[in-house]
Design brief:
single chain; alpha/beta; 7 helices; elongated
């Protein structure tokens, strides 16, 4: 007996709605994503139960590693360039366009002013390596403000009273280092700042 062939009906699925959704999702993630810059040193922040979020705009971040070295950075390239330009002008340091371009892309700066030009002359990939063993001096000289205080002052002058200060320190940073940094901020009447921590999970209780 011969086999009866059953004619298969063509199945056509309109993929247009799916492609529209995929494009919308892709656009959404591209517009809402924030890119994390590669910081000069790795910092493991202490855990806490606080859920207060640090503002995303107009923030001066003070980074302090486990050895007590201090780094500072602004949240946008434009503000970072203004900060570098202001400090260079105050200390009589000449910076080229290429050096300023390298500084714009840096997540933070962590050298003394005498090493600033040498730092910004490095390739962007090597800048963090150059800074890692240095840090911004926090000691005052001849009764004047320390370089750390000068960086904060210039940042405040450039960004106004609405600028927020956030301190991100390693969990193993010596307490005396943090205390000294906070004392220098208090000497400048900078008494309000955020402490960046990691959210403590239930398993850590």
């Amino acid at each position: 007996m011969g086999k009866v062939k059953v004619k298969k009906a063509d199945v056509w699925i309109d993929m247009t709605p799916m492609s529209d959704v995929m494009v919308l999702l892709l656009t959404f993630f591209m517009l809402t994503s924030t890119f994390v810059k590669n910081e000069a040193v790795k910092v493991v922040t202490p855990a806490s139960v606080s859920e207060i979020k640090v503002p995303e705009n107009n923030v001066l971040t003070i980074l302090c590693d486990k050895e007590g070295k201090v780094f500072l950075g602004m949240d946008t390239p434009g503000k970072m360039e203004e900060l570098l330009t202001g400090m260079a002008s105050q200390y009589g340091v000449s910076l080229t366009g290429k050096q300023l371009e390298n500084g714009r892309g840096a997540a933070s700066i962590g050298v003394s002013m005498q090493d600033l030009s040498a730092l910004l002359s490095q390739d962007s990939e090597k800048m963090n390596e150059y800074m890692a063993t240095r840090g911004i001096p926090t000691d005052s000289v001849d009764g004047k403000m320390s370089e750390f205080q000068d960086w904060v002052t210039v940042a405040r002058d450039n960004n106004g009273p609405d600028m927020k200060i956030a301190i991100k320190a390693d969990a193993t940073t010596p307490y005396k280092t943090i205390k000294k940094m906070m004392s220098e901020l208090q000497d400048m009447s900078e008494n309000r700042y955020y402490l960046i921590t990691a959210l403590k999970s239930n398993s850590e209780d």
